[in-house]
Specification:
Layout (H helix, E strand, L loop, with lengths): L12 E4 L5 H12 L3 E6 L2 H12 L5 E5 L5 H15 L4 E4 L5 E2 L7 H11 L1 H15 L4 E6 L12 H23 L4 E8 L11 E2 L10 H6 L5 H13 L4 E4 L1 H12 L4 H8 L10
Parallel strand pairs: 1-2, 1-4, 2-3, 4-6, 5-8, 6-7, 7-9
């Protein structure tokens, strides 16, 4: 199959969820600088307004939509609001997400469902809602932000990793379906790691996790890459219609080790992070 043509962002319309900060805010500004109009969403109106104002300064049209990405009714009504203000949708970026710390044993089913309603079902509902508008475009692209934990699972991230693996899986299946049906809608799955955002600070701590095990400072020390740098990688991947993009050295390392020695990934990756080899039972 011949490669899809590059996507022009000049005059395009992009929907970006979780645009109030971090990668979402950096993506909005990067897209705006390339002449792309924006429909931005977030559940925090003050942060959303700041992102929207920065994007408007680039001379593009920006609409603000405040709702929780777990709200199915709000998502169902969203495409009509975007169509009324922008007329079309060229790009959908599913960036909104939350984190939850705790082992599988510690995390409750309610907490698991809370996270999935945002990280997975929010993205699925957005794709369902906007796919007709995207298919109507000559060329369109969906960008789904997964994670390094959509490549590998690690202790304390069972719920989060499950949602990000699910994001990766559904994206790959939909991509193949769209291609086989001759639709001109591509899907880029993004696996960032170590991006300097507020995700560690905003992580929800499971009710069953002892508070003395929480170390936000240690987690934040691993977040070193500027979100602007990550946004540049993502937007370039979007323009070139890439199926997947790895953002950050940790993501590249995790992908490499998982491919080379999947049965020993936990030991290799732990040593790479300075933890040493795990003691195995005799």
């Amino acid at each position: 199959m011949s490669p899809q043509p590059k996507l022009s962002l000049q005059g395009a319309v992009a929907v970006v969820t979780g645009a109030g900060g971090g990668i979402g805010s950096a993506l909005a500004l990067n897209l705006a600088r390339r002449g792309c109009h924006l429909a931005l969403t977030d559940c925090k109106p003050d942060l959303l307004s700041q992102s929207a104002a920065a994007a408007r300064a680039c001379g593009v049209t920006v609409s603000e939509h405040v709702f929780d990405i777990a709200d199915a009714a709000a998502i169902a009504a969203f495409p009509e609001a975007v169509k009324a203000q922008h007329g079309r949708t060229t790009v959908l970026v599913n960036n909104a997400g939350v984190a939850l710390a705790g082992s599988f044993e510690q995390v409750t089913l309610d907490e698991f469902e809370w996270l999935f309603n945002i990280n997975f079902w929010g993205a699925v509902r957005m794709m369902k809602a906007f796919l007709p508008m995207l298919i109507a475009e000559p060329e369109a692209q969906i960008v789904n932000i997964s994670s390094i934990f959509g490549l590998v699972g690690t202790p304390g991230q069972a719920a989060y990793a499950a949602s990000k693996f699910a994001m990766r899986g559904v994206s790959e299946s939909i991509r193949f379906e769209l291609r086989s049906e001759g639709k001109h809608v591509g899907i880029t799955v993004v696996h960032p790691a170590g991006v300097r955002t507020a995700i560690a600070r905003n992580t929800r701590i499971s009710e069953g996790m002892p508070k003395e095990h929480v170390n936000v400072e240690a987690a934040e020390r691993l977040l070193t890459d500027p979100p602007e740098q990550t946004a540049e990688l993502i937007v370039n991947a979007l323009i070139h219609r890439k199926s997947r993009v790895l953002c950050g050295k940790l993501a590249i390392l995790a992908d490499l080790v998982q491919r080379i020695t999947p049965s020993h990934f936990d030991d290799v990756f732990r040593m790479a992070l300075g933890g040493g080899r795990r003691k195995r039972p005799e």
